[in-house]
Amino acid sequence: MIPEVVREKPNPWRIAQSQFDRAAAYIPDLKAGIKAMLRQPKRELTVYMPVKMDDGSVEVFTGYRVHHNAVLGPTKGGIRFHPDADLDEVRALAMWMTWKCAVVGLPYGGAKGGIVVDPNRLSLGELERLTRRYATEISIIMSPEGDIPAPDVNTNAQIMAWIMDTYSMHRGFTTPAVVTGKPIDIGGSRGREAATGRGVVISMVEALRMMGETRNPEQISVVVQGFGNVGSHAARLAAERGFRIVGISDVSGGYYNPNGLDFAAMRDYVQRHPKRILEGWNGPCEKLSNREFLELPCDVLIPAALEGQFQADNAPRIRAKLIVEGANGPTTPEADDIFHDRGIIVIPDILANAGGVTVSYFEWVQDLQQFFWQEDEINKRLEQIMIESFAAVAQIAKENRVNMRLAAYIRAIGRVARAAMIRGIYP
Ligand code: GLU
Fold it and tell me: How many Cβ atoms from other residues are within 10 Å of residue 275's Cβ?
């Protein structure tokens, strides 16, 4: 195993704005003022939160909530708990949510939240107190009609339950529609947990079809980076459709077997591991560093971890034919150009991972109506939205001779810009 090379983390906000600028150039009727508005967030909140720790001390944590754009509807987007979270990352993720919702046609704008914390360092009680304090602090800009959070990196259904409960306690009545990704018992939606992974696999299948792939799924090798909510469900659903999962990684490193990994055994192992990771897994496979892992020979590579995985330094060495972005922001614009020149197809995050927010939308609709749907119906509607959106983006790519990222941005920015122009600038 070659030791990991430490690379500087690219600035996600610079990347998000540069992706926007590139796409905006393709939209001839985009007025300069609207462009300037869409290039910036609408509002940003930074909060410093004192939390009582188990040992009696008080620690102050930093949190953010950014609304990028609310032209099409309430803002929507997850909350991540990560030691490296910062305002520029949250801004970028909020902007990506605006385009993601627009590309699949949801009546939402984009937002994102983050707390600078390693949640593994906290006890359950500390995590709950931090979450409730954060929910209280952001409640001035959060509501079922205004801004609806959801899970993201290192947050889960229990954390959403605490947010829903805190908000409801302040209002004086139960308000399930204020947050999505909740447990089913308190107004969560069937199918939400697997929805992002499901959408990723639907996108992969559509992309393979677009590329004229005729082999059986068993002959198509898939590598999945990340074994959290997105990666584990994407790997499971791809394996269920018969694809050969040859690589899986998480924070403990990469695991590779060209004949296929025992996915189910790995999932069981993770569920029993105290830190919910693959550390110590010794099934039949080769152990790799993250860098080696991303450069594995395979047909499909699914990054489902953090931003900045593909940069100018490793993009020339990637051997996949297709990259389906389960994570937000895994590819820098420089790497995008290299992939384009090398004929590697990239299905961009704002399309490929939109399944999560799509089922979040279904959850919100069900909560508002207090009427709940069966899982089949949810999965069927999700599939329909993903397939139609994919086809529309592929059509734009063909007509404009651009890659799938630019095409997705052209569709998304066009939608938001049209709505902004029709509504007009207030006052
Ligand atoms: N955090 C997820 C994303 O990046 C889901 C957001 C949501 O459901 O609102 O798309």
Answer: 11
